[in-house]
């Protein structure tokens, strides 16, 4: 059967190059039947290919058969692709069959003569008479590897094509092109932009849609700021944006406004998709003048925009674009019939409200009404936008909004409720009345949807913290309700009571410090809710802390005057504040809070640790600083925070932790506790402080002074508590640091703390005698009490001097070979960050504890810039021991030229070293003969 | 040809919409409404002004009704049954379904209740509706060979449509009443970008700018909620159709969300009957209704029940929908009379009330007030009045937006108040540069229309239309000002679309030909200006002997080499005896007296290079000549 079919096909094809429908059916049958033998398929293929080369055959049918064959039998694909390739190269091939043949080509397989990079082929496909071919070519324009200039010209030309779908494809092609090429010819970009603007008035919906996309579509990977400072090539997306970017700073805003207004025109189109596209595009515009933004909220023309005109097109005939075109853009968008439009309109507001507080104030009215929308997606987006505004401090809630705003708390949809709570939590309520209705809303929420309890408690807690004063007055009003009923039973299962209790206990952590005004018994009532509370506040504190906190607060009246108690309250206070910060991070919508802010908050808060340190609450200090560190790391993962500041802050926190520990040590009469512990702490501190001093470029004078002061504390502690060992050494160091402080003082005005001044006095009294301090130990100890931790100001950017060291292909199982007694080369890959070529770098190669060999790295020899320098270096190691295996530790260290301590290495560094990376292990093994 | 637009109603007023438009000889009547404010002959349009008024059927090509409101359809039964029009009538399906209900309701109120003279009977309505052809949205209807009409969604009320009419190349759009912002139950007007000579648009709110509808909704809900909370009764007088459904949907949603149990009543069977139509005609409602339709028909109101007359004075709060909307009479007036004296109650008024109705009096009065119904009856009004401008008409911005979107050549305003129309006309003319008119009733506006000529096209022209042939032009960018330099940008044009020559020969149809064929068609030759100069080349004496040996071709090669050095970018041709650069051609002149020779040659050793070039290459040619002249000096040295 098979054979007969095949021979029939061959026969008829030979007789008549036009494939009859009968033989076409036979071919399809042969191809689709899974039992057709391989040989038959091959011969069918060969027959088809043979006929393909005949200029008289019906190429269309042959190619269809071939593509069917290629689809059903992928292993033949290669052969078919080759045949198609040959067919394309034939001069006799008619242009209309080319697209079909091109689509048969294997994109992975690169032939020597790739038709897709053949410009003349591309052009002949484009400029042929056949519209279908042209359409195919434009649709597949991304496959062609043609010069961008040719592509741009062709595409721009086809925006004038009389066929609407060709115009549409050409615009889409231009959008694609604008994403990936470098265009610097301003008139060309303008040409493209204004051509797209012209097509906004096309009669065909699909063309208009593409035109909106072409004006501003895909998200741009760079902001305009980045572009203007630009070493990055013009990789922006859309032509309008491209045009904006091409202009100088002064006119940039002007063009950005023009683009914005032009897009505003399109939100009144009668096609839904065009409106949606327009709002999507509006949301991507980075800068807009405030008066235009305000115009988008008002139906009437505003005075500020009345006389303004922009280049662009207002109607098909009018080529001046009045700014009033933007009137009520967002009103229309939010009133739209289709949620597909309302949602992007809400979304666009999200980006634009950041630009102007006044605009945000107007947009709030519109957005609040959107909470009444019937589509969940829109309500959610509206809340998201409100939340975004709250985060940028642009959310001013009016009393008229409350009804809608808190109405969202009783929404049917759990997502909406949760989003509403997240937004409310960040909102600053201006009046007591507002807070009251907010609490009522949350209580209603709790009653209707008990499953939200944990989240509601958390929000109440957060709100209470923000509005301490208001909450106090609310609690005073309702304290009757919170009292046990007559029969002596506490009915805290009641949702309202529970909610009010949560609100009450949040007050002490409020920044307003109204600690005593909440009746202490309320805290003891709250203990009965401990389980539920701790579940809600799991992110804030664990159950033990909560319990301790509640019991503390409930004891208030008893112990209000004890000094110890104050400390403890403070302790809790801090504990909870720490959490206030940490809670920020749990916030999924909150990723935009700037990490530098967080950093600053932490650095400021560090000051609050000092009283704790003085009280000897080591554990709290340790825990807090640990939490903060984690916090900082988390934040900087999310935002691309300059690494320098982060590392600095982390090191600083570490130092504070050590200080806390060391201080506690000294309080407990260390003479008896074993000196080793304090020793270790102090030397760690010293090392860390030196690191801070030397591994960060760009420290301000104040910053330096701060570190030096901490060093002085370290040395003073060392001198006064460690007894006589290392005494001379420490005295020397102390004097040296004092001299540096003096030097800083001379350099410019810096304010010295009492502690430093006292030390200076002591030192002056001593004169230069090396052991003078030994008689002044009590003075030194007293001077320590003058010390207090201050805020360390950081300004600008800190550069973190860092090195990375890598040893290729080396581990325990893959050691480098060596011959004992002979030197061995260690191939190292070194990357240096922010290290100037002037610094003296050393490779420290140590064998065991004692023996270290230094190799000098002359940075002038290696290329790269100061910011980053990467090179491979073969480090020689001379003293190979007589063992079978050994282990070397290699690290990069920098010489601190300003440190005056001399080292005694004969060929090594003269000054103290600061290690820039962790030691890297290198395994070596005796070479086997 | 021209478009003639005779306004029979709604010219500089609201009521009895009727516009007769003649486009290229075809006459269409848009809407056939009645005026609710008059009871004399001004109630109907003056049909006698239509040309050939003796035979309306032959005079009018068709009648188009945009929607079922009486001021748009009220005079139709009269016109068909009494004035004898029997031609085609077009309206949308919902209009065809709802119009007889409206007409019958009106007839009953007017005739049965008020005992006015009957203008048309129930049978007339039935007969009239038999002549109606129903059309669907965006369905193109070929009324006759030349006339095409098409309906577009207009919002406003169920089944309202804008109508597009086209005769030859002249096209107009009659909007009827429309709304550019969507309601809860109806969508916004929707239309394609059309090439139009004329747009006839309503202008009810020609100068009004309405706030976001959300604000109005919020205030309305607040007022109603407050009233029922305080045990009051709410009277919502509405038209049976549209507003009732809109408000009902709003209240139903709100009731649902706020968990309110207060009953909502629909007074008349009419409204309930209309609701049935709404339920069926889902395709004509808003996107929201369409979206939820799969799970629940939005018109199946959960909290609404039908009313019984005995409940009027029943205790307890409730909300009542009653007709008619402006409390001009009927049930709503009856209820109003009983409820008005009580302070707890609330009456919501529509944004627009006709002069003479109770609604209109209430709007302008301050509470508490007294309203005189007729000589005997006077009502004390102590209840709350809430004015609710839920209007299904577009506002000034909407009109401007639509006109801007369509960009027609002319605009005619109807269905509005004269001073406001004048202001809108100013805006349209100044901001959009479109001619605008607002004729009074019985006035005619004539505008020119696009003229349509049928022309053949030559094969060569058609052929050239197939292949893309675009050009870029980039005018000189010497002046470098940053802004407002629209002449600096690259401009594209495609010759396919732009270029062809229309030829009109005697006794033949007009024909479009390509540029190349044009000469042939005219039977003339192409003339061009050419320059010529016979340039002398002096051969130096010292080499006189050699020079005789130097053949012209050798000299030519020498020149050629020089020129190719001087013009590296140009394509030079050295064809044995000639030099060619673009249109410049130079060859040795053997003639004794060449016409182009200007020098009087006394020199014995001179040859001449006769050159010619066209106008376009003049500059180039003189450069070439100067090089050839300098060649001699080079030789001499």
From TrEMBL, chain A:
Recite the UniProt keywords alphabetically.
Answer: Nucleus
Coarse class of the primary localization is nucleus
> What SUPFAM superfamilies does this protein map onto?
ARM repeat (SSF48371)
Localization in the cell: Nucleus
Entry annotated with the keyword Transmembrane helix: no
UniProt cross-references to Pfam families, sorted A to Z: INTS4_C
Q: Where is the Integrator complex subunit 4/Protein SIEL C-terminal Ig-like domain?
A: 811-925
Q: Which residues form a coiled coil?
A: none
Establish whether keyword Nucleus is in the entry. yes
The protein here is known as Integrator complex subunit 4/Protein SIEL C-terminal Ig-like domain-containing protein
Q: Which organism is it from?
A: Rehmannia glutinosa (Chinese foxglove)
From TrEMBL, chain B:
Query: Has the keyword Hydrolase been applied to this entry?
Result: yes
Q: Where in this chain does the record put each Metallo-beta-lactamase domain?
A: 15-239
The record, for InterPro entries, names: Beta_Casp, INTS11-like_MBL-fold, MBL, Metallo-B-lactamas, RibonucZ/Hydroxyglut_hydro, RMMBL
Q: What is its main location?
A: nucleus
Q: Which residues form the Beta-Casp domain?
A: 244-362
Where does this protein reside within or beyond the cell? Answer: Nucleus
Which terms are listed as keywords in the entry?
Answer: Hydrolase, Nucleus
Q: Spell out the CDD domains in the cross-references.
A: INTS11-like_MBL-fold (cd16291)
Which domain of life does this protein belong to?
A: Eukaryota
Alphabetized SMART domains for the sequence: Beta-Casp, Lactamase_B
| UniProt key word rRNA-binding | no
What family does the Swiss-Prot or TrEMBL record give for this protein? Belongs to the metallo-beta-lactamase superfamily. RNA-metabolizing metallo-beta-lactamase-like family. INTS11 subfamily.
- Its recorded name reads Cleavage and polyadenylation specificity factor subunit 3-II
> What species is given as this protein's source?
Rehmannia glutinosa (Chinese foxglove)
Phylogenetic lineage: Eukaryota, Viridiplantae, Streptophyta, Embryophyta, Tracheophyta
């Amino acid at each position: 059967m098979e054979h007969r079919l095949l021979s029939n096909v061959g026969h008829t094809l030979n007789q008549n190059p036009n494939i009859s429908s009968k033989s076409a059916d036979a071919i399809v049958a042969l191809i689709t039947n899974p039992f057709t033998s391989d040989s038959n398929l091959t011969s069918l293929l060969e027959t088809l290919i043979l006929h393909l080369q005949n200029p008289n055959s019906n190429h269309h049918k042959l190619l269809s058969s071939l593509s069917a064959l290629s689809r059903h039998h992928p292993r033949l694909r290669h052969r078919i692709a080759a045949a198609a390739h040959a067919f394309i190269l034939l001069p006799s091939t008619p242009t209309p069959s080319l697209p079909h043949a091109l689509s048969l080509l294997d994109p992975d397989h690169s032939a020597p003569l790739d038709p897709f990079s053949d410009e003349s082929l591309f052009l002949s496909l484009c400029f042929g008479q056949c519209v279908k071919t042209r359409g195919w070519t434009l649709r597949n324009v991304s496959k062609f590897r043609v010069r961008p200039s040719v592509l741009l010209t062709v595409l721009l030309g086809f925006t004038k094509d009389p066929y609407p779908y060709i115009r549409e494809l050409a615009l889409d092609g231009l959008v694609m092109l604008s994403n990936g090429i470098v265009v610097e010819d301003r008139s060309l970009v303008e040409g493209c932009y204004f051509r797209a603007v012209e097509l906004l008035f096309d009669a065909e919906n699909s063309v208009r849609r593409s035109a909106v996309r072409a004006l501003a579509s895909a998200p741009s990977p760079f902001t305009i700021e980045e572009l203007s400072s630009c070493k990055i090539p013009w990789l922006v997306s859309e032509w309008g944006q491209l045009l904006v970017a091409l202009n100088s700073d002064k006119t940039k805003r002007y063009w950005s406004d023009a683009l914005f207004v032009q897009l505003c025109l399109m939100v009144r189109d009668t096609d839904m998709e065009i409106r949606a596209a327009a709002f999507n595009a509006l949301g991507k515009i980075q800068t807009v003048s405030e008066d235009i933004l305000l115009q988008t909220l008002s139906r009437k023309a505003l005075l500020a925009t009345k006389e303004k005109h922009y280049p662009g097109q207002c109607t098909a005939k009018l080529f001046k674009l009045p700014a009033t075109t933007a009137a009520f853009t967002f009103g229309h968008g939010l009133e739209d019939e289709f949620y597909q439009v309302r949602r992007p309109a809400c979304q666009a507001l999200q980006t634009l409200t950041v630009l102007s507080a006044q605009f945000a104030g107007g947009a709030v009215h519109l957005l609040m009404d959107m909470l009444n929308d019937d589509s969940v997606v829109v309500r959610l987006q509206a809340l998201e936008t409100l939340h975004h505004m709250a985060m940028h401090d642009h959310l001013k809630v009016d009393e008229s909004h409350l009804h809608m705003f808190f109405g969202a708390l009783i929404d049917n949809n759990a997502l909406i409720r949760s989003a509403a709570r997240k937004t409310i939590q960040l909102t600053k309520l201006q009046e007591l009345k507002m807070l009251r209705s907010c609490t009522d809303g949350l209580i209603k929420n709790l009653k209707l949807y008990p499953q939200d309890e944990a989240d509601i408690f958390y929000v109440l807690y957060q709100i209470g913290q923000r509005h301490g004063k208001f909450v106090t007055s609310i609690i005073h009003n309702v304290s009757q309700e919170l009292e046990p009923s007559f029969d002596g039973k506490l009915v805290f299962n009641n949702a309202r009571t529970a909610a009010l209790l949560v609100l009450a206990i949040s007050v002490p952590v409020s920044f307003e410090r109204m600690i005593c005004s909440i009746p202490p018994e309320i805290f003891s009532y709250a203990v009965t809710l401990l389980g539920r509370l701790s579940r809600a506040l799991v992110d804030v504190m664990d159950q033990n802390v909560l319990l301790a906190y509640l019991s503390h607060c409930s004891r208030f009246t008893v112990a209000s005057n004890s000094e110890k108690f104050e400390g403890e309250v403070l302790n809790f206070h801090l504990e909870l504040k720490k959490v206030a910060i940490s809670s920020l991070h749990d916030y999924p919508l909150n990723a935009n809070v700037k990490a530098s802010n967080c950093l600053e908050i932490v650095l400021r808060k560090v000051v609050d640790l000092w009283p704790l340190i003085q009280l000897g609450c080591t554990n709290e200090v340790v825990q807090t600083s640990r939490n903060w560190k984690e916090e900082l790391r988390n934040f900087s993962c999310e935002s691309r925070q300059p690494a320098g500041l982060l590392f600095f802050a982390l090191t600083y926190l570490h130092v504070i932790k050590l200080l806390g520990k060391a201080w506690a040590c000294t309080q407990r009469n260390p003479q008896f506790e074993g000196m080793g512990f304090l020793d270790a702490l102090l030397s760690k501190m010293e090392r860390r402080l030196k690191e801070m001093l030397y591994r960060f470029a760009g420290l301000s004078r104040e910053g330096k002074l701060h570190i030096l002061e901490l060093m002085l504390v370290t040395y003073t502690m060392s001198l006064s508590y460690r007894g006589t060992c290392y005494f001379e050494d420490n005295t020397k160091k102390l004097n040296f640091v004092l001299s540096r402080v003096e030097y800083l003082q001379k350099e410019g005005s810096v304010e010295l703390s009492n502690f430093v001044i006292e030390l200076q006095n002591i030192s002056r009294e001593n004169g230069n005698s090396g052991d003078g301090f030994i008689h002044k130990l009590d003075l030194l100890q007293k001077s320590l009490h003058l010390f207090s931790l201050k805020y360390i100001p950081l300004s600008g950017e800190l550069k973190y001097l860092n090195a990375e060291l890598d040893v290729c292909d080396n581990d325990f199982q893959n050691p480098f070979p060596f011959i004992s007694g002979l030197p061995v080369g260690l191939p190292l890959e070194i990357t240096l960050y922010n290290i100037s070529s002037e610094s003296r770098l050393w490779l420290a190669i140590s064998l065991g504890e004692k023996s270290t060999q230094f190799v000098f790295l002359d940075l002038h020899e290696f290329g790269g810039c100061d910011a980053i320098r990467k090179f491979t270096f073969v480090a020689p190691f001379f003293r190979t021991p007589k063992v079978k295996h050994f282990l070397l530790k290699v690290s990069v260290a920098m010489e601190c030229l300003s440190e005056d301590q001399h080292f005694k290495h004969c060929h090594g560094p003269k000054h103290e070293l600061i290690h820039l990376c962790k030691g890297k292990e290198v395994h070596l093994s005796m070479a086997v003969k | 040809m021209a478009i003639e637009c005779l306004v029979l109603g709604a010219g500089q007023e609201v009521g009895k919409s009727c516009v007769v438009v003649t486009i290229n000889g075809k006459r269409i009547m848009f809407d056939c409404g009645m005026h609710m404010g008059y009871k004399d002959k001004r109630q109907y349009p003056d049909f006698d002004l239509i040309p050939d008024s003796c035979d309306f059927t032959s005079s009018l090509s068709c009648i188009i009704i945009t929607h079922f409101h009486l001021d748009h359809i009220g005079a139709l039964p009269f016109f068909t049954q009494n004035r004898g029009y029997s031609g085609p009538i077009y309206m949308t399906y919902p209009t065809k379904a709802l119009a007889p209900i409206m007409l019958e309701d009106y007839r009953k109120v007017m005739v049965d209740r008020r005992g006015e003279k009957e203008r048309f009977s129930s049978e007339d309505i039935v007969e009239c509706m038999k002549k109606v052809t129903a059309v669907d949205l965006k369905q193109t209807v070929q009324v006759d060979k030349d006339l095409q009409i098409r309906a577009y969604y207009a919002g406003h009320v169920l089944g309202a449509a804008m109508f597009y009419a086209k005769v030859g190349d002249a096209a107009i759009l009659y909007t009827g009443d429309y709304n550019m912002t969507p309601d809860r139950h109806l969508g916004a007007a929707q239309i394609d970008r059309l090439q139009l000579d004329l747009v006839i648009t309503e202008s009810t709110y020609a100068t009004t700018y309405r706030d976001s509808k959300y604000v109005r909704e919020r205030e309305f809900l607040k007022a109603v909620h407050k009233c029922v909370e305080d045990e009051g009764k709410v009277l919502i007088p509405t038209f049976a159709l549209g507003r009732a459904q809109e408000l009902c949907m709003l209240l139903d949603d709100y009731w649902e969300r706020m968990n309110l149990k207060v009953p909502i009543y629909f007074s008349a069977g009419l409204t309930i009957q209309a609701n049935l139509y709404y339920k069926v005609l889902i395709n004509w409602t808003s996107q929201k209704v369409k979206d939820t339709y799969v799970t629940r028909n939005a018109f199946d109101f959960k909290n609404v029940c039908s009313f019984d007359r005995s409940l009027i004075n029943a205790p307890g709060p409730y909300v009542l929908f009653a007709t008619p909307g402006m409390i001009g009479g009927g049930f709503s007036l009856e209820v109003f009379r009983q409820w008005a004296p009580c302070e707890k109650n609330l009456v919501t008024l529509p944004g627009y009330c006709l002069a003479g109705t109770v609604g209109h009096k209430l709007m302008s009065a301050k509470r508490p007030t007294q309203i005189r119904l007729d000589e005997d009856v006077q009502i004390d009004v102590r209840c709350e009045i809430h004015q609710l401008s839920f209007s299904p008409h577009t506002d000034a911005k909407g009109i401007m937006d639509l006109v801007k979107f369509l960009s027609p050549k002319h605009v005619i305003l109807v269905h509005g108040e004269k001073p406001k129309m004048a202001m809108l006309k100013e805006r349209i003319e100044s901001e959009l540069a479109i001619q605008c008119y607002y004729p009074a009733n019985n006035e005619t506006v004539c505008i020119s229309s696009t003229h349509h000529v049928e022309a053949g096209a030559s094969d060569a022209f058609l052929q050239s239309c197939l292949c893309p042939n675009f050009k870029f032009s980039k005018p000189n960018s010497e002046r470098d000002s940053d802004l407002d330099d629209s002449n600096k940008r690259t401009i594209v044009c495609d010759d396919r679309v732009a270029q062809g020559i229309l030829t009109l020969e005697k006794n033949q149809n007009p024909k479009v030909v390509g540029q190349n064929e044009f000469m042939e068609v005219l039977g003339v030759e192409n003339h061009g200006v050419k320059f010529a100069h016979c340039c002398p080349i002096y051969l130096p004496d010292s080499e006189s002997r050699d020079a005789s040996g130097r053949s012209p071709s050798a000299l030519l090669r020498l020149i050629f080499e020089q020129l190719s050095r001087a013009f590296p970018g140009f394509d030079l041709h050295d064809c044995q005896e000639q030099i060619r650069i673009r249109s410049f051609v130079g060859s040795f002149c053997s003639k004794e007296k060449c016409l182009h020779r200007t020098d009087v040659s006394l020199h014995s050793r001179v040859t001449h290079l006769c050159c010619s070039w066209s106008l376009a290459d003049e500059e180039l040619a003189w450069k070439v000549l100067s090089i050839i002249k300098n060649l001699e000096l080079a030789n001499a040295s």
